[in-house]
Amino acid sequence: MIARPLYLTGGLVALGLGLIGVALPIMPTVPFLLLAAFCFARSHPEWAQRLYDHPTYGPGLRDWRDRRAISRRAKVSAILAMTAGVGFTWFTVGFPYVWISLAVLTIAGTWIWTRAE
After folding, report:
1. Shared domain check, 63 and 50
2. Which domain holds residue 47?
3. Which of 7, 27, 57, 97 places its Cα 20 to 30 Å from the Cα of 34?
4. What is the pTM of this model?
């Protein structure tokens, strides 16, 4: 009984974060939309379907749902955005905080690059 409202709340929060990510280049969009689709599938399946049918983000969401795949263009974009984040961190707060950004780039970038296309 209580799970459905929690999934709905999680989906709305994830959707909101994904929408923020559309405007902020260093914040991811698709991972939050994936989480929103996951939550909506358990609370409001029609909302999840609307995400999968979206003309811009739908193909990437469907690729992940169906094949656990990330397109090459999305991989390159994600890694370039993380690299820009490293540069931004270096120029704004410097060491030792840039090591955190480098760790994220190394770990997440490697994981993203090794996914199917």
Report:
1. yes
2. 1-68
3. 97
4. 0.80
Among the candidates 48, 68, 88, a domain finishes at: 68
- Tens place of pLDDT for every residue, the chain, 117 residues? 689 999 999 999 999 999 998 888 667 888 899 999 999 999 999 999 999 999 999 999 999 999 999 999 999 988 998 898 899 999 999 889 899 989 989 999 999 999 999
What pLDDT score was predicted for residue 29? 87
Same domain, yes or no: 51 and 3? yes
Inter-CA distances, 12 with 16, 91, 93, Å: 6, 34, 32
What residues are paired with 116 via a beta bridge? 69
Residues 74, 117: one domain?
Answer: yes
3-state secondary structure the chain: CCHHHHHHHHHHHHHHHHHHHHHCCCCCCHHHHHHHHHHHHHHCHHHHHHHHCCCCCHHHHHHHHHHCECCHHHHHHHHHHHHHHHHHHHHHCCCCCHHHHHHHHHHHHHHHHCCEC
Please answer whether residues 112 and 53 qualify as being in contact, where contact means their C-beta atoms are separated by less than 8 angstroms: no
